[in-house]
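pls read this protein.

:::
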Amino acid sequence: MAAKKYDRKNEDVGNIIGLEHMNVLIGDQIKATLFYVKALGFTRDPFMMTNADNMWINLGRSQFHLPTGKPQVLRGRTGLVVSSHEKLLERLKSTRQDLRGTKFRYSSDKKRKVIDVVCPWGNRFRCHEAGAFGKMRVGMPYIQFDVRVGTAGGIAGFYREIMRAPSRVDRWDGARAALVQVGVNQNLIFREKRGPEAKFDGHHIQIYVVDFSGPYNRLLDRGLVSQESNQYQYRFVDITDLESGELLFKIDHEVRAMSHPLYGRSFVNRNPDQHIRSFVEGYEQGAWLMPAQA
């Protein structure tokens, strides 16, 4: 019997091995708790940033970092995976009164199997059910940015050449987009959108890379390193056309080495379906990956 053939390229990840967190300033820690913990069902990290002016929110192997300040709004939307749309809708409904007077809202599209949610300060999220992105049960499968028409090809080329991340131009949500692989079942998506581009307000994303010095040297040669953070981390903001030098998009990247002290740290994920009136011992924590199939 002939040996089974496998397409080994399907398992290639590239140099960027994880999209760990997105950082946006928020206006109120209590409202953020109501939205990210009560409504979405995610988990405040119990070990880091336990003061009253910042919180880290765990969702699978990713996080939101939420310092207090003038609210920042992502120019696009963040994709989320939640274990159950039915339970999510119950939590969203129960939080409406708590967040009245803010920009909080939500809508369910049963045909597309998504729930669109807006946070109290205007950040947009699209929630998918477990199984939509591989074995991810809870997590952040993508961040989608709105970019100018005609820039997707240059953006894909930038990540492919500078970051050595598998990147391609394809269709996403009805429009041309650059899809950049940044981990297992994780992507940065730069979707072209007509109209004026919103001004960049300083929010950032954080990625881990295998080859730490290679992208650094290529960015440095082009004058694109924006911060020499420490031995384990640097940052860049500008995504440029590698031939013309034209600025294509701005997003602050916090680039970390795998030797960073926080790499591989365990994230606590609670089971949001546990309630005081229906508590079952032993089910306090939630699984962030679906069980393996036989």
